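hey can u check if this looks right to u? its 138 residues, i copy pasted from the old doc so theres a chance i mangled smth
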Amino acid sequence: MRIEAYLFFNGRCEEAIEFYRKALGAEVQMLMRNKDAPEKPPPGMLPPGTDDKVMHANLRVGSSVLMVSDGRCNGQPEFRGFSLSLDAANEAEAERMFSALADGGTVQMPLAKTFWSPKFGMVADRFGVGWMVSVPPA
């Protein structure tokens, strides 16, 4: 059994995909737009003009899959009560990823040495997704 995160960006998914490509090296494995669905959604499910929005996409980030969507395109995305955790191979990679995720976001805990990691920090990216970046202890 696996647990994988599924994030709904409420109309900003394409922007998020491009951001994660640059920040984390994410690779799009699959992308389907609303107009490509084999069946149309029930009336009122999606606002007019959302045919080109992302219905579903799989992003490969390292050895993990992050699923993303524009969802119902009903406003700003809200991400509360969780953070995604990234293990960096080394301190330089942690610095690079943390800095990239912080661009346009909010640093919640600067990247620094802790008793459990040579580098650990917390940041909410420009979409409000919480990330914990750490280097595993040697």
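The mean pLDDT is 94.
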